[in-house]
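Same chain as my last thread, 385 residues:
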Amino acid sequence: MDKVRIAIVGGGLSGLHAARRLERHGIQDYVLLEARDALGGRIASFDASGTNTSDLASVAGPFDLGPTWFWPDYQRQLHRLVEELDLPRFAQFESGDTVVENSATAPPVRVRGYVNSPTSMRLVGGMRALIDAVRAGVGPERIMTGQVVRSLRSAKDFVDLTAVDSSGRASTWRVEHVLLALPPRLAAQTIGFEPPLPVLLADEWNSTATWMAAQAKYVAVYDTPFWREQGLSGEGRSRRGPMVEIHDASMPGSGAALFGFIGVPAQARKTVDDAVMHALCRAQLVRLFGSQAATPRADAVKDWAREPFTTVPADLIGEARHGAAPSNMASSGPWGCRLIGIASEWSPQFPGYVAGAIEAAELGLKVVLSAMADTAGREAPILDA
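reply #2:
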């Protein structure tokens, strides 16, 4: 059995940010456990690797398959982090007309586009650049991937955490605090808690929808952003589908791309072969943007409903939405201040957003650092984010 003071469960943005902040406060007595083989969680990208594209140099990227935008005008905490990490950013391309399909039978129509306010911003290199920059501030020896946390048992002065790897081999850590950097519903339904979580808290976590869990995105990469030459913004809206909303996903200077949110319900997508979905999305882009859209250099579909470390069956029922944040911990009892939720859904201001991952992690860290300071009989460090 290994012993550390803090266990972070989940290696997405909130978990990595928490680890980086602990390091910056000189706290290295922790472990970060990630179920997947790679870090990033719901921040994922497509860079044409493994495709039949003959000239990968012309297919820049990566292109976001998860969250894409942030809004510095009001997501100040995330904006400060992006500036601190010196990550180059750019405004979402929105100049030109929008193409709209109003029904399954009517031809597409071209309408005047508009620029959103506040401006939607993107990162050069996609959101993966944020993950890589945050990860660079975390000691690699404290990160363990391929570790699925199965149970948490709270005793008087510690919590025993058990995880299994891909071969089924179990490992146990004895810790003082657990930071849950995975969605509330996923935690409630895949981790065994002993004693059980308080009923009201468990109900809150179980009823909190996981953002993106029921969604799917399609990305098509081209040599040039040919739609811009037609005076189009790359934006599209459709009641025909399969995509209901389309945007320009190009990177500055290179890497022309379009992406769209697939509107086919998750349960129905199970019956559609991947090759068929690709073909349907390409055909839709041809309808909206012309024949040049028929032959992307590379394309990809990311169906988050198929991700077992993101989605549980309850997430596939009902409409996806950014809901109110649940309580991030028990107010008292064996789990009080021992188990704290820090994933984006626990953010009071931005639940489900990238900015929410930062806010929720900061709030959770304040609780843990205060408890550690009380134990040591000293003042808690002040977080500067």
